[in-house]
Amino acid sequence: MNKILIVSNLLRIGGAEKLLYEVVCFARANNLEPEILVLDNYDREHYDPIYEQMNVKVVRTRISLIKNLRSPLKMLESVIWIIKLKYFAAKLYKSIHVMGLYNLDKVYHHINHKQRFFWNVNNAVQFVDRKFPYSAEFLGDENDTIVCINKYQVTEMQSQYSPELLKAKITVFKLFLGGHDTN
Amino acid sequence: MIQINLVARIDDDKNIFLDLVYVAYMLKKDGITDFKVLFIGGVHKQSIYQNIVHLASLLNVESHIGFTMKAIPLAQLPGDIKQGYFLNYTVGAFVGYSAIESIDLGLRAIFLNGDKQLVDDMPKSVGMCPDLNSLIALITALTQDKDAIDIKIDESNSQLKKSYLLTAADRSNLLSLLLPGNQSL
User: CATH code at B136?
Assistant: First the structure.
């Protein structure tokens, strides 16, 4: 079975979370095995029981500042995931998807994989002075792909980040429904 | 009664709530009082919530503004709320998931462009409001000719929903993102 990893920080009711859900459904309908890694959030949220019912693996852990964890078990799980993402990600997963560019500061330097897809789920107008708050260092690897969900994001990113900084490929994929349908 | 529902958590990444307090004020100023604005979502930022309540009070429209104070899945909303119009902010022609989910559940969605630079990009159909004045005009029109406008909104919603279904090309593209370089399964 081809595994993919989807990284996020929330599984609550929300647009990015709905997109993640549809991607998971689509992956399952196409014989892929999606796993979800939720960072820095140990709550039980809206989509947890849904993924349980679907038998989709959800892991909640953190991969930075793990020394602040009080539970030895949680710390051990964090260490395992740090090692997994750094040394075995390419073997374990066909692709890795980070849902929301706002999660990149947590994972960018931890994930060692040639097929990394960073989904941009915000538009510039949502931020102060129409500026994305994302560091350019996360956009500078030409092997990475930024997946925009509307055409405006492409223009917004290209106008904020110069070509010298924005080296990642940019593609657009629309929001969609019916990911679970097989035709 | 025209009920406008806005589904959004009250948080500082959403700078949209005061717009609707202003709309309520303008409607009331024009003598329209048979309406209500309901914010559906959790209060994640107390200061934003307080600002909404404060402005509504200053403009004397607090009786037209309501809050659920918590996130509620659309399908679980009470019937009277489901009868309302679900207002969705867009970025030009881009419509987010809450609108599609509401249409998918048979709810009636209307749209307000939230990016002033993209006013001209807004589709020219009923229920698509390029700016606040258009929204005020739509609500005003609904108080006068609701049934006829509802039919047009429903047609527009139905078309929009279709655009969110995946085509064969979409499926192939998405698969190429999930399984790069190995699309044939």
Answer: 3.40.50.2000
